[in-house]
Amino acid sequence: MPRAKKEAGEESGIAAADGGAAVPWDVDGPRISFGALDPDDLPRPVTSFVFKRSENEDELPIHKHRKGQLVVTAEGSIMCRTLDGLRIVPSNGAVWVPGGVPHRIEISDTGRSYCVFIDPGIAPLPDGCATFSISPMLREMIFHLAKLPPLYPLEGPTSRLAQVLLDELAQMKAEPLHFPVASHPKIQQIAAELLDTPDDHRTIREWAATVAMSERSLARLIIKHTGMTFGRWRQQLHIVIAVQRLSSGATVQAVSQELGYDSPSAFTTMFRRYMGKPPRRYLQDRAEGALN
Questions:
Q1: What is the mean pLDDT of the chain?
Q2: What is the pLDDT of residues 40-86, one digit of tens each?
Q3: Are 27 and 155 within one domain?
């Protein structure tokens, strides 16, 4: 991971752009191995590196850099935390963080990831953060580039490989593995509590009482800032958590219990409704690179 360029307010959270409450989760999470790499110091348009989690090194705080960053999972899963929410990166997936966007990457206990740092403006990549599924060929290209010297000649095979990699990145398929969290303090409060206790099934009326709003006002607020109803928003968090847990080896039964479903079949029905496939089939297709 890159050397951190710490943001103001790091120790207590990042202040929202509109002066609202700080994002409540930007300094929490597992400790992972980072090293002393600063991608902005590398005078190459595309570079790739492999990183593993380590309990013995400092965690990377919320940070940003000029170059964009594509994080690809090789083992385990990755959670990307930004000011607008959480993005989960299961096996055979990737998260894109454009240059200049404050973020934090968290790797699961047995995780191994590859980071591709890309100069801004050299490829038609999204302007905002996004999660993707990637082809086996693209994944192997990223892995191979990480084995080569980062200061490769600007003319030659490695440079050509980097260009083909950029062409392939432009064809990545987006995935709905984002839990949106706005800068509004009441939405942040609810999101933080749901993250701590994902099996909390309070109704929107009960949440409205908790944050001292009317039910109708809270419903409008959530739709305005997340684009989802409250029920859909909470289920989106369940999808994000479920993919992370399942990718790390948890059973469907364990995940359904953690999320507060009455039975594994009820959880599976919810998962299939929004992801198009039952959990195990979804993970199997990802592992085989066959996700559509």
A1: 82
A2: 888 999 999 988 765 554 456 788 899 999 999 887 778 888 888 88
A3: yes
End-to-end CA distance of the chain: 30
Give SS3 for 225: helix
Range of the domain at 205: 183-287
> Taking the model in full, what pTM does it have?
0.73
Of 116, 149, 174, the last residue of a domain is 174
Rounded to whole angstroms, how far apart are CA atoms 98 and 82?
11
Say which CATH number the domain at 94 has: 2.60.120.280
pLDDT for 3 equals: 45
Domains held by the chain: number: 2
Domain edge (last residue) among 174, 202, 220:
174
Report in angstroms the alpha-carbon separations of 1 from 95, 96, 103, 250: 14, 14, 12, 26
